[in-house]
Amino acid sequence: ASAASAAGSCQVELGRWISPFRRRIGRWLTDVSPLKPLLNDSYCTFKLTTVAWAEPWVVSLNLRYNQPEQASAVAVYPLFEGGTFNASYNDRPLLNVTLQAPSPSSVALEAVITGHGSDNNGCGEFCPTSHHFIINGDEYMVNFTEAGTPFGCANKARQGAEPNEHGTWYYGRNGWCDGNEVRPWVIDVTKSAVKASPVVVKYFGWYQGATPRPTQSPGYIIMTSHLVEYA
After folding, report:
1. pTM recorded for the entire structure
2. What are 48's strand-pairing partners?
3. Which of 96, 120, 140, 217 could make an S-S bridge to 198, C-beta 3.0–4.6 Å?
4. Residue 1's Cα: distance from chain center in Å?
């Protein structure tokens, strides 16, 4: 997996892409407009990183700016990150977020979530997980039900996954596919965020409707999440 980050923003991840199995190809157009406020300096340095065991890649990255049709993101507030997907994964405190404006145009939740590793349940790569954000008492959830299915990623070829890769590329995975971008999950949470100030946010991740409790070799979740304010 590769990630681009702006060095001036404490190594905040802007995008995540998964390299294909033995297919030296891949081109994706990923909408990261909710994170535009991170690019707030006159000079930004970007870095692409990958795991040490991956074969060398020649990569290029372009930023394309479009005039927003509606409101534009003006502030980004970091929320939760991932971690080892075991019995203590959900031992997290509540977060309090104070927005810039008392009545923002809109507020969105943005998250990039992928599961990796393999415990006795196939977590986190091949097990379906659900991820829950509670914002001022209202729940927002995304789940990855295609993880572990025979053709979960093969069926995504028309959505950008590179076809005809080597190995087990066609199996569904937990929030990602080989040879594809990881599309950010973005959902409008305005009605919840304006209920009270500060905005109180809670997060937990589940396997089969409960906190994961692997008995060996726990997997892990790679996640970035943000609250985004628009004006």
Report:
1. 0.92
2. 4
3. 96
4. 12
